[in-house]
């Protein structure tokens, strides 16, 4: 499958059309951004690591009954996937309080939440991805029916129930993560985008070290080594 035309360039990926109108190619970039583009950098090899990690996780989710847009990894930086109509909602799943939850609500960093929290952010760079509730999502027309919001929440929890023990067994706590969904050609809501240390927080069970993009957000360094470590744990190396 070949790239024909650049459809869209985002912060971490370029999306290409292919000869098949139902399939797209995501090209994972080495660029790093945080805080809605206020922090920018690049790390050679980061894109390939995220492509490989996402590939493994999409395959694992499929084996566990979750529908995703993933078709195949083409090469180091390129993933072939179904073309979907993107739902402009970022679904955030949290097991442990940190990041914006700690900043906005003053919940103690590292507190294990009494239950898994699922939040919706409106995917809109100009507005800074504000947090929204179901009524906002319906008023904005981000989905047509309440059922679809219920489905996003339900599938997000299912994915968390699959991935949390998977990572724990590999010595990583799945602290929180962001998912995106879209409608496939049959109007089914399926998981899209990527699943990588760019959009998940992982803490090492033993040391508590961040093994994800927080290394960049907090100016800690060692990002690539941490992403390689996550991939190696996934591959059981
Ligand atoms: O920043 P915050 O604490 O809200 O992030 C929660 C989770 O969602 C983190 O795992 C972060 O990597 C992810 N996220 C993301 N893209 C965003 C916002 C959050 O991947 N635009």
Automatic annotation (TrEMBL):
Record field: catalytic activity: 5-amino-1-(5-phospho-D-ribosyl)imidazole-4-carboxylate + L-aspartate + ATP = (2S)-2-[5-amino-1-(5-phospho-beta-D-ribosyl)imidazole-4-carboxamido]succinate + ADP + phosphate + 2 H(+)
Keyword Ligase tagged: yes
Sorted UniProt keywords: ATP-binding, Ligase, Nucleotide-binding, Purine biosynthesis
EC number: 6.3.2.6
SAICAR synthetase/ADE2 N-terminal domain ranges (all copies): 6-233
UniProt entry tagged with the keyword ATP-binding: yes
GO biological process terms, semicolon-separated: 'de novo' IMP biosynthetic process; cobalamin biosynthetic process
Molecular function GO terms recorded: ATP binding; phosphoribosylaminoimidazolesuccinocarboxamide synthase activity
Annotated metabolic or biological route of this protein: Purine metabolism; IMP biosynthesis via de novo pathway; 5-amino-1-(5-phospho-D-ribosyl)imidazole-4-carboxamide from 5-amino-1-(5-phospho-D-ribosyl)imidazole-4-carboxylate: step 1/2
Pfam families, per database record: SAICAR_synt
CDD domains, per database record: SAICAR_synt_PurC
Family matches, as PANTHER family: MULTIFUNCTIONAL PROTEIN ADE2, SI:DKEY-6E2.2
Family: Belongs to the SAICAR synthetase family.
HAMAP family attached to this UniProt entry: SAICAR_synth
Name of the featured protein: Phosphoribosylaminoimidazole-succinocarboxamide synthase
Record organism: Halarcobacter bivalviorum
Gene of this entry: purC
């Amino acid at each position: 499958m070949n790239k024909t035309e650049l459809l869209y360039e985002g912060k971490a990926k370029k999306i290409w059309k292919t000869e098949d109108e139902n399939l797209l190619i995501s090209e994972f970039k080495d660029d790093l951004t945080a805080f809605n583009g206020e922090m920018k950098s690049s790390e050679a090899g980061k894109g390939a690591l995220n492509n490989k990690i996402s590939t493994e996780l999409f395959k694992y989710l499929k084996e566990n009954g979750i529908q995703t847009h993933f078709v195949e990894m083409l090469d180091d930086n390129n993933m072939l996937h179904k073309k979907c109509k993107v739902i402009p909602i970022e679904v955030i799943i949290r097991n442990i309080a940190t990041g914006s939850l700690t900043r906005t609500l003053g919940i103690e960093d590292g507190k294990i939440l009494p239950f898994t929290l699922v939040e919706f952010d409106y995917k809109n760079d100009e507005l800074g991805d504000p947090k929204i509730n179901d009524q906002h999502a319906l008023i904005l027309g981000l989905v047509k029916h309440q059922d679809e919001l219920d489905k996003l929440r339900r599938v997000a929890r299912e994915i968390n129930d699959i991935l949390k023990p998977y990572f724990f067994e590999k010595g990583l706590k799945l602290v929180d993560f962001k998912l995106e969904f879209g409608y496939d050609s049959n109007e089914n809501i399926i998981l899209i985008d990527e699943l990588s240390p760019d959009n998940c927080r992982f803490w090492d069970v033993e040391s508590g070290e961040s093994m994800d993009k927080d290394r960049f957000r907090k100016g800690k360094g060692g990002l690539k080594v941490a992403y390689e470590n996550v991939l190696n744990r996934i591959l059981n190396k």
